[in-house]
Amino acid sequence: MTLRLTEVSTSGYRSLKSIHYPVGDLEVFVGANGVGKTNLYRGLEMLRLAAQNRLGHALAEEGMPQALYAKPWRSGPPRMSFAATLLEDGRSPAKYRYEVEVGYPPLLAGAFRYEPDIKTETLALVSGGRTVRLLDRKAGSVMARGEDGRPVEVDLDILGSETVLGRLQDPSRYPALDAVRRTLLEWRFYHEVRTDSASPLRRPSVLVASPTLAPDGSNLAAVFATLEVIRGDRADLDEVIANAFPGAQLEISDKDQASFGIRFPEFPHRVFSAAELSDGTLRFLALAGALLAYRLPPLVALNEPESSLHPDLMPALADLILRASRRSQVWLVTHSDRLAELVSCGPGAERRRVVKKDGATWIEGLKLFGAYDEDDD
To answer: Domains in the chain, please, with CATH?
Structure first.
């Protein structure tokens, strides 16, 4: 079952008071420093962490007092929630909406004081104008519907900081829950890829078929080798590198380990290894591996990919992103108006301006009910 992201909702998280917005094939979010673009990115990433059963851990690392929306905006105990709507491909598409709500544990509960505590967790099926809850979790009580459609109480040993989405793994009994989990797990988030001297990007990779770049880029050399040896086609890769670094050639080795280097036109008889490349060159190559890999995930999210890149590389980076958008959904946050402009010229691209509205992160043209002004046209 193939599921495509169509809507995202986040509330009570950092600068996100309450925001609900649609997602197309290529979303480009641009804005000034401090408006909360990265919080939008993190809000989306929390959904993948819920599928990994790492949501509670991630929020604990951030610190619950810091992660919760700073200004009180409603009565009752503080809460944050993360939700996504996923559309099933097919003639009679069905929508699945997953939502998880997190707060502090009860005062007398056997939990750490600031430990994230999942209050509710739901998965709903929307089809033919009818909504059916496939999963309904309230604190430690879990109800789920199996293939027969009947709701049953699930005997699941689950802690307050754990997600049912990450813990209840029974594809034969709960196929919809499994499809949503697998979709979210396949999403990839690329940000702050290290380029220092000890970066995994600079080291050879184990020589094994690698269809997708790892989040830390540790298999970059194997991703390149997979394109050359397994697919037998590196034309896109060569074209993108030639556009970014005129006259340069990517050299890929698959002897014992996978490795790569660049042969620059100024030094035609020498290959500069990954360990010798500049931070900007290496970062661009990592983005090429992420966006031109043998198999792209259903959604690729990029957070400020232009960081440490020379402005002259913006057209080549935009080209990379547009190529990836033909094979996957792409969700992009950028500081660069130029990159946003170049990417938004592509088919299916939507350029969104992120702003602050009454102290909270907002998107220009977004209405309270989750549609953009132009959608009324």
So the answer is: 3-187+351-376 (no CATH), 194-346 (3.40.50)
What residues contact 244, with CB distance under 8 A and at least 6 apart?
284, 313, 316, 317
**pLDDT band for position 99 (50/70/90)?**
very high
Q: In the chain, at which residue ranges do the beta strands (DSSP E only) sit?
A: 3-13, 16-22, 26-30, 79-88, 95-103, 117-127, 130-138, 141-145, 151-153, 188-190, 205-206, 249-255, 257-263, 272-273, 299-303, 329-334, 349-357, 360-363
Diameter of the chain measured on Cα atoms:
71
User: Between these two residues, 73 and 328, which has the higher pLDDT value?
Assistant: 328
For position 94, what pLDDT does the model report? 87
Cα separation, 225 vs 210, in Å, equals 8
Residues 27, 300 contacting (CB under 8 angstroms)? no
Which residues, at least 6 apart from 114, have a Cβ–Cβ distance to it below 8 Å?
Answer: 60, 63, 64, 65, 104
| Averaged confidence pLDDT in the chain | 93
**pLDDT tens sequence across 339-372:** 999 999 999 999 999 999 999 999 999 998 889 9
N residues, the chain: 377
CA distance 223 to 213: 6
